[in-house]
Amino acid sequence: MANHEIVIAGFGGQGLLFSGKVLAYAGLLEGRELSWLPSYGPEMRGGTANCNVILSDTPIGSPIVEKPDVLMVMNTPSLDKFEDTVVPGGKIFIDSTMITRKVNRTDVEVYYVPATAMALEKGLTGLANMILTGALLEKTHCIKDESLDAALHKVVPAKKPELFDTNMNAVVLGREYVK
Amino acid sequence: MAVVFEKPHALTDAVLHYCPGCPHGIVHRLVAEAIDELGIEGKTIGIAPVGCSVMAYDYFRCDMVEAAHGRAPAVATGIKRCMPDNVVFTYQGDGDLASIGLCETVSTACRGENITIIFINNAIYGMTGGQMAPTSLLGQVTQTSPYGRDPKTQGYPIKICELLSTLDAPAYLERVTVTDVKNVKNAKRAIKKAFQNQIEGKGFSLVEVLSACPTNWGMTPTDALQWVTDKMVPVYPLGCFRDKE
Amino acid sequence: MSEKVLMKGNEALAEAAIIAGCRHYFGYPITPQTEVAAYMAKRMPKIGGTFLQAESEIAAINMVYGAASTGHRAMTSSSSPGISLKCEGISYLAGADLPALIINVQRGGPGLGGIQPGQSDYFLATRGPGHGDFHVLVFAPSGVQEMADLTLKAFDLAEKYRMPSMILADGTMGQMMEPVVLPEPQESHNDLSWAVTGTNMEREHNIVNSLYLQPQDLEDMNNQRFARYAEIEKKEAMWEEFMMEDAEICVVSYGITARIARNAINEARKQGIKVGMIRPITLWPFPKAPLAAAADKVKHFVCVELNMGQMKEDVELAISCKKPVDLCYRVGGMIPSPTEVLEAIKKAM
Known about the structure:
Chain A is of the alpha/beta class. Chain A has helices at 16-29, 76-82, 115-121, 128-140, 145-155, 162-178, and strands spanning 4-11, 33-38, 48-56, 70-73, 91-95, 109-113. In chain A, α1 (16-29) packs across α5, α3 (115-121) packs across α4 (128-140) and α4 (128-140) packs across α6 (162-178).
């Protein structure tokens, strides 16, 4: 499979690290090389936050993603910060409820998904991240479709199994939107 | 010939380095007698402080650890958490326990660690040659309070038993002295109780012993003991501040 | 237990400590190592161990000192400013010849500094963190697997040589997740007859102590300790070589910066530049031998680190200044990009 260097960014509390973990666990289950690196500190508590995920078939050097080929952003400051870092031909996934501006780059593929509005409408409050993740999975195939189930089971807290279904519904919603 | 008096087994044969007239020897003996009478020498671990009694590790026959200045209660905590069935005690002076180690003292008491602390308060730093201690009395002349301790710039004596008795956790807090036979016997009772409490799992026990420092106070040993009675006891009243059942 | 699991570096390290037999953790909250404490707080009560949040870093290291005195494997973890506070206790551990594990998940300094990754405690760790002549074993993990593996190693060598060990990680190593195979517990046969466990009235009393008022005694103790250190320098240095066979430029880097340098070296090789890397895994003992050997083959050294060139001095010493040594650095929580490292490599050509 293709190697991917992914940046997921937005406000703390939007579930960015969670989305990254789903991808990371899928990578683990597929026996691939991977790394997951969060930003940390006060920014985790309400400011901008992000996580870097690398999925690769060869040993990973730096876990810090300098030039992502996949960028998922959920607020404007994050788009401002990371837009120019995306490699030409890379893909950007945008929560267009939260980010009203358009991407300036013309050499990248951009998917605008009103994830936060969709989540509210479908009773999936707090799962805009997974709707956007669904879009990301559909368009990048960075993990195998069949890995998602098991990965999600790993990441959803054991004490709240009901969250599995709602997360999965959110992913499907995102997939359908960009199909 | 019948033996009518001997050194407690829990003391080694090492010659004490303390100055003539220093009550450390008396208190060492009381601690050792308590250990002997309770039959706990084999499972006791003692912690020596930094101060005059720094070399207490040579004097007690039980296993001993030398701690950094003021840190004995933290070291005791580490030991007790590993060896809950052993008996752990610290032996500390006023600079060690009430100044540099005050945070450890209060926090260890607050956690109610099941240990025994023997606190020697002689209102002065002895080992370094007679500087002001946190427990020095107002007006007391020392090397670093040559005009007498002035509360405006040097604050007031710290009263450890009173301070610790504001906490919920401590099991036993008592202040005693060793100025005469009656008081020595009373101090022995308190020290033994502080060990007994630990054996029974009652928790944090501290005995404050008002002591003298003839050398650094510039007094004869008898005058020094009189000074404890006349000057220290009024500031640091003797008695039990906490005794949890 | 050969199954791969996904863990944060801090958590892998904590679990490895438990696998190593550590049941006594004493710590104080500070970013970016707090996961170690949180992990221990969850795990220790379930396995009959101690987790104690101390009143200060100073108290925590002294609790470790007490626990270590009893022959139990004990540890504390902190980050740079907290390590400064622990230095007193580390010196006492060294002076009393006690084994213990200290984790330093470094951040930028000095002072309160920042909370982003740093390697600026290199001197502090490798020169003996505290007063007096002494060393601690210093391990610099460069991935989550090493966070786990080196923790076991650190406990074992600390006990074998009766001295403190330090894992010198950085914020990135602590925070990142990677697949890791948790190590198997190893049997240890280290002598613990010095420990204070109570005499049980069966032996002379043991004394754990660092006070020697007779100068000759103290000098003897120092000499004994340094004889041990000499043995350690001979036997225990660890390093990894990467693409060094035909290298003309040798990058020297550890921890997170070694990972970044790896990317840069891969890119440089694509561009036909003959560059390799020697990655110290132990920072004390420092792997002097492979560097000295490399000095006869390569033309130039490039150190990459998150400080103003602290390891660079050790490299220059190891190669007796035979070849030029450049420095590629970022500090304050900044991290060099592979592109910056590549530029430094090109400059060295």
